[in-house]
Every structure is written in C-alpha cells, then in structure tokens.
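Question: what's this shape?

___
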Amino acid sequence: MERAASVPFPAGDTNFSMARTFAFMRDPLTLLLDAYERYGPVFTQRVFHANIVFVLGPEANHHLLVSNAKNYSWRNGAYGDLSPLLGDGMLAIDGAFHRLQRKAMLPMFHRERIAKSMLLMEQEVDAALDTWEDGTTVDLYDWTRELALRIAMRALFGIDPDAARGRADAAQEFENALSFWSKDYIFQLMRGPGTPWSKMRTAAKRLDTIIYAELTRRRATGDYGDDLLGLLLATQDGDSLELKDRHIRDEVMTLLFAGHDTTTSTVTFLFYELSRHPAYTNSPDFSLSAALDETLRMYPPAWIGPRRSIEDDTIAGVPVPGGIPVNYTSWVSHHLPDVWDDPFSFKPERFVGEARERIPKGAYVPFGGGSRTCIGMRFGQAEIAVIATKILSRFRLDVKPGYNLSVRQMPTIGPRDGLPVTVRAAPPAANLGDGPLAQEPLAA
C-alpha cells in the first residue's frame, strides 16, 4: 500500500528503527512531541513495520474529526485490534450501520436518563466509600475500576454485579482481557496456551456468559427493562435495524469497556494531581468542573484515534495519501507548547471564564469530535463528578511518599503501577456543585 500511494508520505522518520518502535510503545508523548517540533502538525513515523501519518493540533484535529471525517475509516484503523474482545461495537464500525446503531442508543444518554442514573451512582459510591477509614491505604485505580464497572453494569444494562459474580468476576475478567493490550507488541503476536492472547480470549468468554445469560433471562420474562440493554432488545424486535445477539453482545462489551475504563483513568489522574496541588481544593475559587477538564487535557483516556484514509487528502496544507494509517492523538495535541501555555502543568484555571473561551477549536478533543464524539460522554462526566464530589466531601487523599507516576498507553492511558493513596478524613473541599454537566463541551 505504501508503494502504491499516489502522493508522497508527509516528511518524517521513515527508516526502520526498533529503537523508535520501543520508544513509541514506552513513551509516545515524548517521541511525537519531538517529531512535531521537527516536522510540524502532519508528519510520518515508521513504527515497527509500517509508516503511520500523525496529525496534531487544532486545525488538523478539526479536519480529521469534523470537516472531512468521512474520508477516514475507523474499522480499518487500529481499533480493529480490539475486535477479539469488543467485536463489532461502536468503536469498530462505520457507515450506515454505525449511524443507525448510534441513533438506537442515544435515548439512553439523554439528560433525563442520566439524571435518573445519578441516583444509582450515588448509592454505589456511598457504599464503596463506607469501607474507607482514616489512615487506611487504598489503590485508587483498582478501587475505582471495580466501582465504575459496577455502575456501568447496573445503570446501563441492569445487571446485578453481585449476582453475576457467581459466573465470573467481571472487574477482574475485564482487567485480564485489557492487560493483553498493555503487553509489548512482540508478546501480543504470540498465540497458544498461556499467552496474553489466550488469557484475553478466556476472559472474553467468561464475560460473555454474563451478557448472554441476561439476554436469555429478559426474553424469558418478557420484561426487556428500562435501560440500554432493553433499548437494544426492543430495537432487535423492530424492523429499522437488524441486530443479532452478537451485535448486542458487542455493544454491551464495548460500553462496559468504555464506560468503566475511561472513568477509572480520569478519577485516578484527577486525585493524583489534586494530591500534588492541595491549594486548589483548599481555595474558595476551586472548581471541580475545571479540574476535571484539566485532568482530561493532561490525561485523555482515549489518547489516540487510529484511522485509515480512504482517498488522497490535504491536512493543514500537507498532502496525505489515501489507503494509509492516519492517527490523531489527543494526548499529544493537549501538550503542544505553541497551543497550551506550560502544557505539563496542572492549571484548572485554563477552563474558567474567558480563558476557556480562548481555547482554539479543535485544540481540546478528549472525547473525539463530530459524528464520532463519544456517545457516553455525558454519562461519563456525570459519573466522574459524582465519584469525585463524594470523595471530596468526606476525605483527602494523599499519594504515598516515593510514588512515581508511570503512564501505560494501551488501550487507554492509566497509571502503570496503580495509585496508592492514604485516606484522610477531612472537611468538604470548596465549590463542589459545578459538575461537568453544568457546561457544554468545547467544540472539536
């Protein structure tokens, strides 16, 4: 495909280099920021065996996500690598089927539905926090992962995680499955018993038992339920969209993945930064909404958006061939020094008042953009706000001394070694009533 390209690849580092490949796997942020400085917003990097075009910054992001999004395929990008776990869920489909399936699920993410789900979120968070005591140590990453998965199972799919535990521990099985993508590429290529691939497939099958059992139960009772799973079952009975059980399974798996993994990452990084900057929560001007926006700038969970171009195109003045991998990366775009002042510093004030209004269109893209904007964005924002508000109203979390943050990249970014914190009873932080639902997301 590279030799057949009708226009040259953009300038970049196109010679084979294992050092570059390992650098991309271990620290893509530094590697791609360096390439941006040398080549500009559109450039090529050879990673392992393939040349990949990366597009960064406001103009390039807006072009790829909004103004010419139809020229870039998701299914033929690297999101296909998630198909052994997620199947043909929203992350891996394009075209008319994607539009119809998205339309079928949108009612579940209307404001009224989310407001109703928040009551359930509060119940789960309160129960989880009741186990905390002053002075105890908690791995916040593990704690939030289990909590977020419980919320997703109950709020989106009406599945009782305690009843499901007899068939499989969903939180642990998701961790087992997702760990496949945290392995070095060479280990992902291995097959056979005992390999990461085998463990991922085993975990997926165990999760399937939970999902298919719930489908069977609802059909037997005739009560589809007032949740996302019920909407999908009702759609299956209609004639506007042909959904098979495997399609429902794939959407459940995709949204369980997206609905708990991204929340886990964001809550963990938020409290990592607040622990390092206690002056914010002690200030009467503290804004939880702004702190969450800044956390998503510094640590956007879906850090990379792999696509494949369909036709030749021009992005930010640079010709790009058709039929090749083209990736945008919010993580790198959110750290460009010519777009963001002091980009590696935690500054929630960037998202307050006039400073927020000055952020260029396309500069801030933690949820993607255009027709592929994360369908569960508002649900996730509400969930994170509930978790963070509940914690900040009762506790202060201090990161254990000597902890050094190491970020792993796949499939979403997160702390490689978890986040050990010491729980301290504390009075409520200031200004907790302005959660993310209070304002519209910035335009992509």
Observations:
- The chain has a mean pLDDT of 86.
- The CA atoms of residues 283 and 430 lie 6 Å apart.
- Residues 12-438 form a domain with the Cytochrome p450 fold (CATH 1.10.630.10).
